[in-house]
Amino acid sequence: MEAIKQNLIDKLSVEQIKIELMRTAFGRQSTFLSRFDPRILIIWYSFFAIAPWFIHNKIILLGLLVPIIVLTLSSKVSPLVLIIMGVGLVSEISYILLGSLLFGGSLASFWPLMTLTLKILLISLASIAVFSSMDPEKLSDALLSLGMPAQFSFGVSYGYRMLPILIEEYHNIIHSFRLRGRSPQRKGIFGWRSLVYLAAISVRAFYPLILNTAKRTRTTVEALEVRGFTYSLVSPDAKKLKLAYLRIRPLDFVFLGCSLCYMIALAVAGQHFSL
Amino acid sequence: MSSLQHAAAATMTSRAADSSAPTPIIEMNDVSFQYPGAEGMALQEIRLTVQPGEFIAIAGTNGSGKSTLCKCLNGLIPNYYVGDLSGSIQVAGMDASNETVSSLSRKVTYVFQDFENQLVRPTVYDEACFAPLNYGYADYRQRGERALAMLGLEPLRDQWIWQLSGGQKHMTALAGALALDPDVIIVDEPVAQLDPYHAKLIYDKLAMLNKQYGKTIIVIEHHTEFIADYCDKVVLMDSGTIRWIKPVQEALSCVDELAALNILPPQVTLAVRNWEARRGQLAAATARQLYPITLAEAAVYFQKDMEAVDARQKGYQPQAALPSTEQAETISGRESQALSLFANPVPALAKASDAASPQELIRFANVSYGYKTITRALHPVIRDLNLSIYEGERIALVGNNGAGKSTLLKLISGIRRPNKGELTVCGRLTKRHSPEQLSEFVSFIYQHPEEMFIEDSVRKDVEFFPKARKKEGYSAFVDEVLERLRLTKLQDRDGRLLSGGQQRRATLAIGLAMRPTVMLLDEPTASLDASSRREMTAMLAELQDQVKATLIATHDMQLVAEWANRVIVMHNGRVLLDTDTRSLFRELHVLEQAGLIPPQITLLSDRLGLEPPCLSVDELQSRLTGAAFVDTAEQLPREEVITSGSH
Predict the structure, then answer these.
(1) What gap in Å lies between CA A107 and CA A115, rounded to an integer?
(2) With bands split at pLDDT 50, 70 and 90, how would you rate the model's confidence at B646?
(3) Where is the protein situated, by its record's location annotation (chain B) (predicted)?
(4) Percent of chain B's residues with pLDDT above 90
(5) What are the sequence ranges of the domains in chain A?
(6) Looking at beta carbons, which residues of chain B come within 8 Å of A6?
(7) In this complex, do A223 and B118 lie within 8 Å of one another by their Cβ atoms?
């Protein structure tokens, strides 16, 4: 019994989460969305991130949800991400329901709150679909091309490079705590003492991580200097060269056009029907 | 005595007179530099001329100004580190004082000591293209590709940086430097962070770049065995000044001078030097200035010398090579003598047959372990392993990268659990116990000390374990541990800010404060300089009174030779060989398969046909000398013989 429990904990372990995270970031899968120019995707995404806040028609919102769900599924998103989202969604809906019923409300107050949930769902799914399809390198280049400062776009891609190393180091530091620490003798109800113990470690492990990172950046900064990064910030050639590969092709316009047509159709439909 | 005089004489004739040659690629004249806010000068009156196509080693102790010197060449000093710089520096036809970092560092590229932090891009290919892209070369892709091709890195082209091994990362950093098509490549301590096998690969590539492409190579290096094999010239630095510049053989023959600066000469050079000293030939050898510095040279030397000795002393059997039936007896006779003097006590293999066998501490029963890769496929690391570890064992785990050494240690410590099979540690199944529970018996010292410093002072780190367990009187015990490891003065410092050797000592203190039954250490001598390494080896030898068994995963074959009493060679997650040190070095093909390089002295004794091979310079000495020379040896003052230490 104990072994099975331990096994289950292992399955939900840091290790597992690590793999899923890495998979999301470094999976290198080609998906439907990854075919398009990253700048087009960013523009497309920014519409879906903002527009839902100003749309109150549920028909339109639900109409938007359908293609977004399809796109999310086509992006081969890690199940872990979907599960986390699912858990978040279910718990949100249930607490809204409980809240409105407990405090004397009725379904009348429940409905508008559900609209909010729907909007949030829409936006999060769009984010997941776009960002898991777009490799951070392309994102970084797209940002640069759209006029973001080079330091910022470099930061995105450097973060991408460092992520696995930081995760690994964080994990090792947590082990360091565990290899010297002492877990609570009595686990408490639902193992709350153990949970508190582990939670405390996972927070404390950030400090050594941050200090170690600060230490190692010294070389990084020198290396950036000698490898011409500072030079590239002031030279227009480097930027031009770097972004030369980004091309907006007819396919991108087709994608934008289709999206636009769909939106118009939805808007028309929203005029005639309502929920 | 007289060797010191030689050294002094050599110093006098030092400054190589090669100013006659045409336009040097680097010319430094009376260069001095002081870091802002620093008290002393970092560089003082440096005069250095480097011709195109030279392969130069800069040696010196920590803080002697080696890196500072090199940073003057690519403009980091004084553009990035603003300080007081005087004197003139000419690099590739440019006057450095009029140039920027960006113009200089296209001609002079730099591979840092902690090269991992110099890699800033996600993939190998991106990394190779990074610098040319930044400098706006339209052909940056071709440059990147070409650099990868020159180093044979095409197969890794699309790999993520984080997936690479240390050696591959270093190659990638080199490719990133090479892509600029520089005239000068500076590599800062390549051997420090790599195992000898991969360090050799890097040096082979550097030699190729030097010969085939005419690149000028400057390495900051104190591993003299590499200097001897690859470099033309040695620049010896000492507290900010250049002590001398000499051709490599002359430089490495200054055995005593180098040793005084904590730079150990090649083992073979030491062997020859001690051999001559012991035979009392030093004076007679009439101002011999040059010793053999490479394995091949030393082998020739000893073979010749043996023959000479043999001719002189008729009736005494020659000790070297070409074993005949007559000699076999002599050698084996001497072998037993040497074994009694130098061999490690009780080969581990004896325990199986021993009736009163020592306590079994750890048992692997059909253990397999693997981890999931990002394709969710299981990557096996340990395959169906059966192994027992007993009290009193000092085990060296050796094998190439990815052989499963570190994973084996992690399994014992409980931070990894077997996928299959059962692993028992001190009577407890690791599956059923948390790392916290296992830590009562096992302490695991990581390869990277920074990952063990979880508090803000050394003392707090050392007392973390006993304090968490509220051990009685732990404070006094911690005092004692700190004292034993000479950390008392450093106890309030943050572990991260200590030097490499101090960090290792601190992690050892952390381990000892846990009063473990079994101690696990992952690469305890990696990236240490010669003196810290020697110190570490000595401390590891003391461990055996504190713990019942020790396991060390290492690439350091000298440590293996001098410390272990059982060696486990791992390959692809399996045990390839489980033996004692002496038999290990007999199995040269197994070592080769596992990507291991035996100590130079072992290779030398192998070339001389000594069976079994010797493990240390002293041992070679005594085996070669045999009974005939024992008397002279005893008369020799102790200081005359420099022992090899760990290197």
Answers:
(1) 13
(2) very low
(3) Cell membrane
(4) 51
(5) 29-134+250-275, 135-244
(6) 431-432
(7) yes
